[in-house]
Design brief:
Elements (H helix, E strand, L loop, with lengths): L2 H22 L3 H5 L2 E8 L7 E2 H12 L5 E6 L3 E5 L2 E13 L5 E15 L2 E10 L16
Parallel strand pairs: 1-7
Antiparallel strand pairs: 1-2, 3-5, 4-5, 5-6, 6-7
Length: about 140
């Protein structure tokens, strides 16, 4: 691996650190600063896809309307970099924690496509998913890594 790839991987890891911290703090501007203008997201929460910053910002704003605390606990990402493009993947425990300490959270799968734009890495695509049971179609929220 080249020095440039190592530096790019470190910069991308920092994006995920900033992203999870901003989400936990319900810092909408901090979250949106990490996305490209043409972000496309396949979130675990409908609709089927979000296209562009305005659409995705509105989604995040709806998510932050709850008083509950966000749980955003990503595992260490696996990152591949080639030129101005990168992909990353990791499992993430996410959900909500109520004031009384009860949680509604589960492990999910996440994958990302990042692009270097103006010298800065930006998230261009993200995908969250929850596995489902093939036999009955039920989401498998109880799985552990």
């Amino acid at each position: 691996m080249t020095d440039k790839q190592i530096k790019d991987q470190a910069a991308i890891r920092e994006i995920f650190t900033r992203w999870s911290k901003a989400a936990r703090n319900k810092d909408l501007d901090g979250i949106m600063a990490l996305y490209s203008d043409d972000i496309c997201s396949y979130d675990a929460v409908g609709p089927l896809q979000f296209s562009g910053r305005e659409d995705y910002r509105a989604h995040w704003d709806r998510c932050m309307a709850f008083d509950d605390e966000f749980i955003m606990e990503p595992q260490q990402p696996t990152i591949r970099v080639s030129g101005h493009l990168a992909v990353a993947r990791f499992l993430i425990r996410c959900g909500m924690r109520k004031e009384d300490g009860t949680e509604q959270a589960s492990w999910m799968r996440s994958s990302y496509h990042l692009e270097k734009q103006g010298g800065e890495w930006r998230i261009a695509h993200e995908h969250f998913s929850v596995p489902f049971d093939f036999e009955n179609g039920a989401a498998q929220f109880g799985l552990q890594p």
